[in-house]
Amino acid sequence: MLQERKFLKGPELRDIDDYDFPGFQKALEMGPEAIVEEISKSGLLGRGGAGFPTGKKWELAYQEEGENKYIICNADEGEPGTFKDRYLLDERTLKVLEGIMIGAYTIDADTGYIYIRGEYSRQIEILEETLQKARKAGILGEDILGSNFSFDIKLVRGAGCYVCGDETSLLNSLEGMRGSSRSKPPYPISKGLYGCPTLVNNVESLACSAEILNQGAEKFASMGTEESSGTKLVSLSGDINFPGVYEVEFGSASLQEIIEDLGGGSQQGQEIKFIIPGGLSTPIVPSDNLQAEYSYEGLQQAGSSVGSGGMMVISTAQELSDILTRIARFYMDESCGTCLPCREGNKQIYRIISEAKYAGLTVDRLNLIQDIGDTMQEAARCGLGRSAQLPIGTILSEYKEELIEGGNLP
Ligand SMILES: Cc1cc2nc3c(=O)[nH]c(=O)nc-3n(C[C@H](O)[C@H](O)[C@H](O)COP(=O)(O)O)c2cc1C
Ligand code: SF4
Q: What is the pLDDT of residues 175-187, one digit of tens each?
């Protein structure tokens, strides 16, 4: 029976008086280049969704020249089905703080930001208190712990906008502008906040980095598979008995085992229809493929991806038409409207899907949705528009017969 592997999870860690920041102390002894090497050796891939190697990102940010450099902890967590960063902010607050400090020291940033989802009121309170106490204890401020490294963190609350989780929209939002994506390149690493080199990392990536320095890259790399090091926090939700945040060692379990052993199986023994394994911007995995291994390569083979780890389980009790309408509505509402393929594409997909509820879904309409989706994937400016079609397109192609032949969409 699958058990949780605990690398990041652990007892509540919020009291500054009881924590001596071992990972950060080690970082001060090692120096920036050795830290970059250690994080690279661990094989950690960014946990915010895109899976970019964290060590490489830190190396690039370290190499950038600039009078001012910034680090940003992306705590926006707006991806539907994802709530693992909330757990870390809530219960492992000091690990997150330590990860930010290590990142800042590595790249030589003197200011950091935590950009937090506006709805996370409790976590905002916890962070405000933690930051205040850290300043009083000399963990933040001038010459931290007797070193000549000075650094402080500002907490900024988002205003409920999914696209602001995208790193470039987040930068605009932080600068007081409308939260819409910037064209890349330039990447934030070279030209980010106020035009300065900026390292943006997800909460889990930063907490992981702190733990990697603390427990060692070798320990992290010894878990998981060759391509998927370590563990991943999975936010499990939907039609299952025990929703929650679970830590899973990559390669140690199939999707089925995660659902059965950790999630307690489907609610009232309902049949599972499909899962969305990595948040709403990942393709679905139908129930006949739940033997797929939980790892980057395993999910890729299953036609999907790890994404943010927001795993939503959908049973046959759900109406496909409702699910499609809700997804299409979400993307239409959340598009920032800057580029035409995403602004108009999501609007048209929502129109066709909601009309299909009454007028029926024909092969022509289905092909039209696929066409619009393909255009968005090719031509949209940011990840929101490029991935909006992934869950909708895979539901439509997987359940085409059922949808057209009058099952859920008459
Ligand atoms: C529409 C959209 C929303 C995103 N939301 C988040 C988010 O809430 N949290 C997050 O860490 N990354 C989010 N990302 C990914 C970020 O742009 C970025 O890749 C990430 O913060 C980098 O951190 P990592 O390398 O540690 O994963 C989002 C991307 C897009 C396109
Ligand atoms: S893809 Fe969508 S969210 Fe991204 S810039 Fe274009 S309109 Fe905005």
A: 999 999 999 999 9
